[in-house]
Design brief:
The structure is a single chain. The protein is built from two helices and four strands; from the N terminus they run E-H-E-E-H-E. The protein has 103 residues and is of the alpha+beta class. It is globular, with a radius of gyration of 13 Å. Helix 1 crosses helix 2. Helix content is 33%, strand content 31%. It has a four-stranded antiparallel β-sheet. It has one domain: Alpha-Beta Plaits (2-Layer Sandwich).
Length: 103
């Protein structure tokens, strides 16, 4: 499994609800149709910080999710709400455990 974590800083705090709604309504459907999709999480950390976590089967699948996410920001005209490029951490999961509980 491969994970991409994007940390967005300087997020327009007046648009955080809008961002979350758009993620739910238009980004997650796009991502979930991609090959290898395993999960997506959006975290609102307050003070203009939001973090997304994408889980995909392979590195190539995760790379495609990066392209789709960048395209989505442009399509939804969210550049002003997300003014700074995200800090990206990408890699293969080498250990994990879950109890199977879903949110």
């Amino acid at each position: 499994m491969h994970v991409t974590i994007r940390r967005y800083e300087g997020v327009d705090q007046n648009r955080e609800t809008e961002l979350a709604e758009k993620v739910n309504s238009s980004l997650m459907p796009r991502l979930s149709k991609l090959p290898g999709f395993s999960g997506y999480y959006l975290i609102e950390a307050k003070d203009g910080v939001m973090t997304s976590i994408n889980l995909f089967d392979t590195s190539a699948h995760a790379d495609e999710s990066n392209r789709v996410s960048s395209e989505w920001i442009r399509d939804e005209k969210l550049e002003a709400a997300l003014p700074s490029p995200p800090k990206i951490t990408f890699g293969e999961v080498v250990a994990f455990k879950t109890n199977g509980v879903s949110v």
